[in-house]
């Protein structure tokens, strides 16, 4: 009997497949328990009124969504989340690329430099952010102390006023995220054949042309994947903002993820938080799908 | 052939299942020789300034040595995280047996039907030792939380900078201006960065005779009155101190209370409105300058009305070892342990037996005793955290020059009424 003649049941229920199902079962249970169930429950919460412990009380339909969508504060936070993500990803990509280029040049001590650049990424994120909160301290902090030494008599109160607070949080997010980008770009650069650079050199190509015509096209797919991951992580970066400013002053550094947390666990408005979480999920899924389509289209073209 | 294999597989699975299930059944029926597992209670321990980690660890060790079958795990949690952690634990169905809480949270947890009756688990001797006036958690004649700390706030004065004791807020302003000498030292401490409590606004608000809510005829809270004349006077005054007189520390907008108080301990602030932990915190910081304690003054024409903070210990109905938790409280509330805690935290004792200790016969505790006579606490309202957040935002907007005190407080009052469904 050929494979084509087998029924669906026969094809899916062979001796080997049964063993495979058995081995997959624990992983499936974990995925359902820790990913699918919470996701479904959050969607349910967004459609129900909840009590202050997050338990479902009465069915609300889309009323929770209407309440959130008609709140101007929500759109401010959503817009800031997109701005935060765009600036963060752009900065990390540019800085990561520069660092990767520097780390790709052979020079004595390059290995040490590579290890040092990984440190911010390898450290515990909350601890790193706490260290930065000391750096930003207006009285004891290293940053303002240095700025005063350099002649700036009244440097900004970094985490106490709206625009400096946003910049301060952004910088910490970038500082933590750059090493990953640099490492990924570096690994991509090392996979480009040296022959290309040598022949370009023979043709009298300058450094910028090498970068734009050899390096950049050579790591194009890596850039796509890295920026997608970075966009997802940056959009959901809770630590930098919550530890440094709690989303303040006057919510001026709140992004969706910190606002979700505050609504859920500080104000115990789980239904509102669930709506915002669903919206976040939709936005991130949309970004991922657009990226994936673009990536696979490129791959097919190549 | 495949039938035999299937049979073998089934046998192996049955044996494995048996190995897993049988010991469980034996333990459940108590037929094993092994002793029953000890009762282990968990306790969310709020981290008070002045109370050292050594004290927490030694208390836990001492109790756990008394009876190996009754154990406690004391989990330290920062004040700023405690409410979130408790809520998360309750929502997840894994509450601690007991926790320190701000007494104002009681109503919230009562609403959620999460509280257990502490008098069922704590001995009568311990309950009788608690000073009746400290039982703020007595609601409708029933005690829902044991007082753990209760203390009115007061004014601490660094005598190496000034000896003047202001009688009114207006005098305080003039004294702060007179001694202000940045960057060597500043006249007055004020935190401008949001933190877990609205303490500083409350000091000035109560000093102006304000109340956060109107009271209904039945005693319940009505609409917000934070935008009353008292509120506007308080916030205008705070803003004047910070942005016109400039007598508060540089960078006050970037400092919470916890981050900023070390400036006082370091001798760089003249006046600070603070709690009783100041005494032990000064000692721990190695401060050598003399300090006097006085009442937080009222505005001209108003009596001194300081804020009083009470914290309680709540028992949670979802706890798994409430009996062990009750025994721990009996152990901890003995004067040798609770008295030491009160000294470290700097709070006046809540038990009669600890009150007899000579350590509490000091000028600071005497000042607190006077302060308590006309002090006001936080409003006991379930949505207080969200309400105080709205007021914090109003205060910050005024400090940042984004709104006038009146406009900011009107907006806050409207938000609070909406939060409370009014």
Topology of this protein?
The complex is a heterodimer of chains A (302) and B (422).
Chain A: H1 8-12, H2 15-47, E1 48-50, E2 56-59, H3 63-69, H4 72-104, H5 110-122, H6 125-136, H7 142-149, H8 162-190, H9 194-202, H10 207-218, H11 220-235, H12 239-245, H13 256-266, H14 270-301
Antiparallel strand pairs in A: 1-2
Helix pairs in contact in A: 2-14, 3-14, 4-8, 4-11, 5-8, 6-12, 8-11, 8-12, 11-14, 13-14
Chain B: H1 2-29, E1 39-46, H2 53-66, E2 70-77, H3 79-91, E3 98-102, H4 106-111, E4 115-116, H5 124-129, E5 138-139, E6 142-143, E7 146-152, E8 154-158, H6 169-179, E9 186-188, H7 199-207, E10 213-215, E11 221-224, H8 229-244, H9 257-265, E12 269-274, H10 278-284, E13 291-294, E14 308-316, H11 322-332, H12 335-345, H13 352-355, H14 363-373, H15 384-399, H16 405-419
Parallel strand pairs in B: 1-2, 1-3, 9-12
Antiparallel strand pairs in B: 3-14, 4-14, 5-6, 7-14, 8-12, 8-13, 10-11
Helix pairs in contact in B: 7-8, 15-16
Your description of this structure?
Chain A is mainly alpha-helical. In chain A, 75% of the residues lie in helices and 2% in strands. In chain A, helix 5 packs across helix 8 and helix 8 runs antiparallel to helix 12. With 422 residues, chain B is an alpha+beta fold. Chain B is built from 16 helices and 14 strands. In chain B, strands 1, 2, 3, 4, 7 and 14 form a six-stranded mixed sheet that branches. A four-stranded mixed sheet of chain B has the order 9-12-8-13. Chain B is globular, with a radius of gyration of 26 Å. The termini of chain B are far apart. The chains are: A mainly alpha (302), B alpha+beta (422). Chains A and B meet through loops of A and helix 3, helix 9 and helix 15 of B.
């Amino acid at each position: 009997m050929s494979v084509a003649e087998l029924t669906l049941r026969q094809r899916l229920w062979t001796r080997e497949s049964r063993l495979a199902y058995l081995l997959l079962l624990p992983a499936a249970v974990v995925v359902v328990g820790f990913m699918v169930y919470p996701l479904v429950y959050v969607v349910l919460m967004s459609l129900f009124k909840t009590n202050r412990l997050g338990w479902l009380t009465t069915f609300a339909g889309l009323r929770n969504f209407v309440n959130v969508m008609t709140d101007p504060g929500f759109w401010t936070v959503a817009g800031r989340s997109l701005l935060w993500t765009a600036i963060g990803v752009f900065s990390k990509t540019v800085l990561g690329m520069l660092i990767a280029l520097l780390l790709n040049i052979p020079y004595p001590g390059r290995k040490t430099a590579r290890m040092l650049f990984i440190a911010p990424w390898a450290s515990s994120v909350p601890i790193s952010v706490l260290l930065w909160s000391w750096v930003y301290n207006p009285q004891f902090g290293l940053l303002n102390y240095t700025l005063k030494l350099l002649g700036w008599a009244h440097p900004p109160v970094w985490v106490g006023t709206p625009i400096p607070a946003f910049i301060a949080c952004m910088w910490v997010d970038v500082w933590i995220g750059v090493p990953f980008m640099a490492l990924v770009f570096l690994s991509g650069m090392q996979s480009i054949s040296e022959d290309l650079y040598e022949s370009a050199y023979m043709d009298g190509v300058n450094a910028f042309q090498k970068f734009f015509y050899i390096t950049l096209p050579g790591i194009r797919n890596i850039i796509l994947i890295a920026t997608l991951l970075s966009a997802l992580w940056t959009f959901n970066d809770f630590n930098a903002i919550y530890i440094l400013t709690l989303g303040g002053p006057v919510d001026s550094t709140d992004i969706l993820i910190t606002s979700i947390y505050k609504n859920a666990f500080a104000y115990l408005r789980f239904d509102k938080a669930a709506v915002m979480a669903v919206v976040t999920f939709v936005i991130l899924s949309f970004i991922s799908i657009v990226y994936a389509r673009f990536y696979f289209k490129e791959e097919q073209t190549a | 052939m495949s039938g035999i294999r299937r049979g073998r597989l089934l046998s192996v699975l049955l044996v494995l299942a048996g190995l897993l299930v049988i010991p469980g059944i034996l333990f459940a029926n108590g037929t094993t020789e092994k002793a029953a597992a000890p009762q282990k209670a968990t306790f969310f321990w709020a981290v008070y300034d002045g109370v050292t980690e050594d004290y927490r660890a030694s208390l836990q060790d001492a109790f756990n040595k008394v009876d190996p079958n009754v154990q406690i795990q004391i989990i330290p949690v920062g004040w700023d995280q405690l409410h979130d952690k408790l809520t998360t634990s309750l929502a997840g169905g894994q509450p601690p047996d007991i926790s320190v809480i701000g007494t104002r949270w009681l109503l919230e947890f009562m609403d959620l039907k999460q509280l257990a009756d502490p008098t069922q688990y704590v001995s009568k001797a311990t309950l009788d030792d608690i000073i009746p006036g400290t039982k703020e958690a007595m609601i409708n004649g029933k005690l829902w939380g044991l007082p753990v700390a209760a203390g009115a706030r007061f004014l601490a004065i660094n005598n190496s900078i000034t000896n003047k004791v202001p009688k009114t807020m207006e005098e305080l302003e003039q004294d702060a201006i007179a001694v202000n000498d940045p960057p060597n030292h500043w006249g007055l401490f004020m935190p401008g960065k949001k933190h877990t409590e609205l303490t500083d606004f409350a000091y000035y608000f109560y000093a102006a005779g304000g109340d956060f809510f109107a009271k209904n005829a039945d005693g319940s809270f009505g609409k917000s009155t934070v935008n009353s004349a008292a509120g506007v006077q308080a916030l205008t005054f705070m803003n004047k101190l910070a942005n016109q007189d400039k007598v508060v520390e540089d960078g006050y907008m970037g400092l919470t209370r916890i981050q900023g108080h070390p400036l006082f301990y370091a001798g760089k602030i003249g006046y600070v409105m603070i709690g009783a932990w100041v005494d032990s915190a000064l000692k721990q910081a190695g401060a050598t300058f003399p300090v006097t304690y006085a009442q937080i003054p009222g505005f001209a024409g108003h009596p001194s009305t300081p804020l009083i903070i009470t914290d309680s210990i709540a028992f949670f109905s979802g706890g798994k070892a409430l009996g062990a938790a009750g025994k721990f409280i009996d152990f901890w509330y003995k004067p040798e342990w609770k008295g030491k805690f009160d000294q470290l935290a700097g709070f006046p004792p809540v038990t009669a037996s600890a009150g007899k200790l000579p350590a509490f016969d000091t000028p600071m505790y005497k000042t607190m005793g006077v302060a308590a006579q006309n002090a006001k606490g936080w409003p006991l309202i379930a949505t207080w955290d969200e309400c105080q957040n709205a007021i914090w935002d109003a205060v910050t907007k005024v400090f940042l020059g984004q709104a006038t005190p009146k406009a900011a407080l009107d907006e806050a009052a409207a938000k609070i009424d909406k939060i409370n469904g009014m």
